[in-house]
């Protein structure tokens, strides 16, 4: 692409010369074809993307100021930015259109989320909570304090280690040992339930 020639075409096109506009399209055709081949936009085929690029080329031509910068850089950036905006817009629309969209069928109540809590989930969560309380009661006072400090009060191991005047690695190791102990209690409870 000859930059000086494109600048001349842009100036003539701005003045209303239709032949210059056609020549400008021919100059940008390889760039637009290459860009549209590399770009995927949901709901657009290659020709749609090319047409969007040409539309944006003329939009850039209308808003172009001859004294400020070169037209080639201005137009290529404008075309790329327009495609990025299209990608962003279609990405947000993807979930409500196309094959992922909700279809009306006999089992619609299974597909729609319910605001009512699921009884099975509530019972499972309650059982898990009871089992966790039981497992924590089986721990020593120091282990219970560690679990409470890190998991229930959302503090870090580093803070725990500095408050207890111990090495960070020792506190981390202690935390892992306590979690293994709780896991062992859970596993033994599951074995009892299965048998």
Automatic annotation (TrEMBL):
Coiled coil: none
A single GO BP: DNA-templated transcription initiation
Domain (RNA polymerase sigma-70 region): residue spans on this chain: 24-91
An example Gene Ontology molecular-function term: DNA binding
Top-level division of the source organism's lineage: Bacteria
InterPro entries named among the record's database cross-references: RNA_pol_sigma-70_dom, RNA_pol_sigma70_r2, RNA_pol_sigma_r2
Assigned keywords, A-Z: DNA-binding, Sigma factor, Transcription, Transcription regulation
Name the UniProt record assigns to this protein: Sigma-70 family RNA polymerase sigma factor
Native species: Clostridium botulinum
């Amino acid at each position: 692409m000859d930059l000086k020639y494109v600048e001349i075409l842009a100036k003539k096109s701005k003045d209303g010369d239709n032949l210059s506009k056609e020549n400008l399209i021919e100059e940008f055709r390889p760039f637009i074809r290459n860009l549209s081949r590399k770009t995927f936009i949901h709901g657009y085929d290659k020709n749609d993307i090319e047409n969007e690029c040409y539309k944006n080329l003329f939009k850039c031509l209308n808003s172009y100021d001859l004294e400020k910068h070169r037209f080639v850089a201005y137009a290529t950036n404008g075309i790329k930015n327009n495609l990025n905006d299209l990608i962003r817009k279609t990405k947000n629309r993807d979930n409500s259109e196309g094959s992922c969209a909700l279809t009306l069928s006999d089992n619609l109540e299974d597909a729609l989320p319910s605001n009512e809590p699921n009884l099975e989930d509530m019972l499972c969560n309650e059982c898990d909570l009871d089992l966790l309380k039981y497992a924590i009661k089986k721990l020593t006072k120091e282990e219970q304090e560690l679990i409470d400090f890190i998991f229930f009060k959302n503090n870090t191991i580093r803070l725990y280690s500095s408050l207890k005047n111990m090495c960070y690695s020792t506190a981390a190791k202690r935390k892992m040992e306590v979690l293994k102990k709780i896991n062992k209690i859970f596993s033994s409870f599951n074995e009892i339930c299965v048998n």
